[in-house]
Amino acid sequence: MSQASETLLDIENLTVTFPTRSGEFQAVRGISFTLGRERLGIVGESGSGKSMTGRAILRLIRPPGRITADRMALQGRDLLAMREKEMQGVRGQRISMVMQDPKFSLNPVMRIGDQIMEIYRFHTGAGRKQARAKAIEMLEAVAIRDPERVMRAYAHEVSGGMGQRIMIAMMLVTEPEILIADEPTSALDVSVQGSVLEIIDKLVKERGMGLIFISHDLNLVASFCDRVLIMYAGRIVETCAADKLHEAKHPYTRGLLGSLPRIDRPQKRLQVLERDAAWAEAESVSGRL
Amino acid sequence: MSRTSQDRQTWRQWLLTDTPTSRAHARAVAAYNGWLRLRANHMAMLGLYILLALLLVALLAPWLAPHDPLAQDLANRLQPLGTPGHPLGTDSLGRDILSRMIYGARITLYIVTLVALIAPIVGLLVGTVAGYAGGWTDAILMRVTDIFLAFPRLVLALAFVAALGTGIENAVLAISITAWPPYARIARAETLTFRNSDFIAAIRLQGARPLRIITRHIWPLCLSSLIIRVTLDMAGIILAAAGLGFLGLGAQPPSPEWGAMVAEGRKFILDHWWVSTMPGLAIFTVSLAFNLLGDGMRDVLDPREGKSG
Amino acid sequence: MSEIVLDRLNVWFGEGADRVDAVKGASFTVPSGASFGLVGESGSGKSTILRALVGLVPTWSGRMKVDGVALGRKRPRGFYRDVQMVFQDPYASLHPRHSVDAMLSETLKLHGFRDIDARIVKLLDDVGLGPQFRFRYPHQLSGGQRQRVAIARALAPEPSVLLLDEPTSALDVSVQAEVLNLLTDLRAARGLTYLMVSHNLAVVSHMCEEVAVMQNGEIVEVMSVEDMRAMAPSHPYTSRLLEASMGYRPAG
What we know:
- The complex is a heterotrimer.
- In chain A, about 35% of the residues lie in helices and about 25% in strands.
- By secondary structure, chain A is of the alpha/beta class.
- Chain A starts with 8 loop residues before the first strand and ends in an 8-residue tail after the last helix.
- The relative contact order of chain A is 0.17.
- Chain B is mostly helical.
- Chain B has a domain at about 95-300: MetI-like fold (Orthogonal Bundle), CATH 1.10.3720.10.
- Chain B is built from twelve helices and no strands.
- Chain B is flat.
- Chain B starts with 10 loop residues before the first helix and ends in an 8-residue tail after the last helix.
- Chain C has a single domain (about 5-245), classed as P-loop containing nucleotide triphosphate hydrolases (Rossmann fold), CATH 3.40.50.300.
- The model of chain C has no long low-confidence stretch (mean pLDDT about 90).
- Classes of the chains: A alpha/beta, B mainly alpha, C alpha/beta.
- Chains A and C meet through helix 8 and helix 9 of A and helix 6, helix 7, helix 8 and helix 9 of C.
C-alpha cells in the first residue's frame, strides 16, 4: 500500500489542561503522534488521557479546559489555528467520532433516517433525495438488512448493536478521512462486538481512512489495530506494532498484560500492577512515524 | 490535592484534610468544604448577604425605623420619594413607607419561614412514601395530591382561612396546605429514580425496613431539589400571603406586611407609584436573594464533584 | 454448610401481555464452599437469578434452597446474615451522601452487632483499605476502592455465601486483578461460597470451578472450568462466546 505512508494527522506536543481548585491538572501531557491510513490503537486505563486525546483532536474540550500543541495538523492544515466555524466543517465531515454508547449519541425524538440525512445535507448541501439515497447506502454498508425500516425508526426501537452500527453509518456518511472510535464496542455484548468491529475494519480498509481506536481492552487492540500507543497518566509510555503488543517492554504495559486473567493459563493469584512514580514523570514516547 | 504536614497543622489544613480521624472531624471537614463551595459562588454569597441583612433589619426594626409604622399623619399623606423625614415617602394614611417596610420584614420573614418549613416537609413525606411504596398507596396519595393541585391556589387558601379564621398563623397554614402538592410531585419523581438503584437494593439486603430506607436513604437525596424549588417559590408565597391580606384574610391592616402594602398602594399606582413599588421591590429583592442562595445551596448539598480525566 | 440449590427456577417481570420471562427453568447446585459462575450476555437472565435469590424480585416460581432451607416469598431477617451480595457498579451501589463509616456502621447496627468501631476497622483492614478511608465519601474514592467498600459492607454480617454480580466489570484491568485477588483471599480465609455472574469468561474461569452458560433466560450448558480451558464446550453458543472472548478475528 503506497497510501499507508501518507500522514493524515500530525500531532506534536499535545497538552490538555484543566484548571482545578488545587492548581492546573494536565489530562494529556505533551504527546506526539502521527496517523496515516492505518488503524492506530490508543490503550490505557481510565484517567490515562486516551479519551481526552480523541476529543482534543476535534477541539471538543470545553472551556475552562485548554488545548495546546506545537503542531496539530490535518493534512498540513493547522487545526488549532482554525476558527470555530471552520472547525465545524472539519468535525463530522473530515474527522468523525463514534462514542461508547449509542443510546446517548442518537437523538431520541428524531427518526434515524432524518438524523443521517441532516448530517449529510449539513456538510454537503445535497438535496433530500440524494441524502436519502446516501443514507440508505450507508445503512446497507453497515450490514443493516432492512434500511428502509430502520430509516423510519427511533433510537429506542433499535438494539445496542444496531444502534452502534447506525452511529457508524451516520459518522461515515460524509466520507471523512479520519474516524475516531472511542470504546465503540465496550457497551456491546461480545457476540455483537465482532460484527461491529468487522464493519469498522471493512469501511476503513475500503475507503482508505485513518482510524484512531481508543480502548481499554488490550487483547482487542492487539488483534484489531496496526499500531498501538500505550498511555499512562497523560503520556505515551510505549508504542509498538499491534501484533507485537504481547512482547511489549514497558513495565506498565507488561503489568497490564499480566493482570489479565486468561482462560488458557490458570493462575492461583493474578499479577498485580505495581505502579512506579517514575512512569508518570518520564518523557512521553513519540508515536510519530 | 492538599498536602497535610504532620508537624505543624493549621486549622485550615485540619479542615481540608482528605483523611479525617473521627466522625466529628469528618463532619467539620464536610461543612468547611461546603462553605468553601458556597463562598466560591459569588451570586450565592450575594443572596446570603441580602438575607442576613434582612434578618438584621427585622431584628433591629425598633432601632432602625425612623417612625412608628402605624402612626398616621393624614396631613402628610402620599408624600413622594425623598421627602424630608420620609425618604421613601408616605402612604395613603400618611404612614412612613420606610418604617413600614422595616417592620414588615418581620412579618414577611415569619410567614415565609413557616411556609418554607411546613410545605416542603409535608410534600417530602407524601411524595417519598408514595414513590417508595408504589401500588395502592402511591395511587391514593397521588390522587389526593392531584385534587389539591387542581384547585386554584388562592381559592383553596381562602376556603381554609374562612374555615380556620383570619390571622397570620392561619394564613401560613392555608398557604402551606396549598403549596405542598408540587413538592410531593418532585419528591415522588426523585424517589422513583432512586428506588430501584443498587444502593437502595444494597441496604434492603441488610434487612432495613422501608421507614428507615425512606428517612435515612431517600430523604437526603430529595432535599436538594426541594430546596431549589422552595427558593423559586418564595416570591409566590409572599404574594399569596399578600393576596390573603388583600382580601382581609391574612395579615390584618394596619400591620405592615409587604404584600398587604403592595395591595393597598394599587389604588394609587398611576399617580403615586412608589406606594406599592417600594414594598414590591423589597419582595423582589428577597425572592431574588432566596433564588441565588438556593442555586448555591444545590452545589453545597451535592458532595459529588465534577469528574476529571 | 451453605449449599445453594436451584430447581426449575422461573423468574418473570410484568403481567399479562407485558410479561417477560427473564429466567426459564434454571437448575443448578452450588456445593458449600464452592465457587460457581454464571456467564452470558446482557439480558440472558444471569443477574436476575441473583436478584431472585436475595429477594429483590418477588415474581418467581420453582424452588430455591440455601443451606437446606427452602426460600419463600419473603426472606427472614437472618437470611441476610448468611447471604450477601456485591453489585456490579460500585458507583451505583454506594449511597452518594453516606460516608464509608456511616455505611458500615448502619449495616453492623442492622445486624445487631455491638462492637461497631472495632469491627469497622477490622473490615476495612480485611479488604485492604487503611483506616484513613473510614470517613471518606464515595466521591472521594476510586472505583477499586469503592468496590472494596462494597465488599466490606457485604462481609459485615459475616455471611457464608457471597453473590457477586459482575464485581469487576466497571473497573480497570489492573484494579480488577486486585479485587479478584482480594475475593480469592477472602474465600480462602473465610471458607465462603461464591456465586458469581460475569460476561467475562476469563474472569469466571479464573474465579470459579464450575460454570453455567446462559442464553435468553435458559441455562444451555453447565461445564467444568477444565473443559472451558480445554475449549471443549458441548453447546454451539458456548463456543461462540469462547471464540469472541479471544479478541478480534476477521471473518475469512
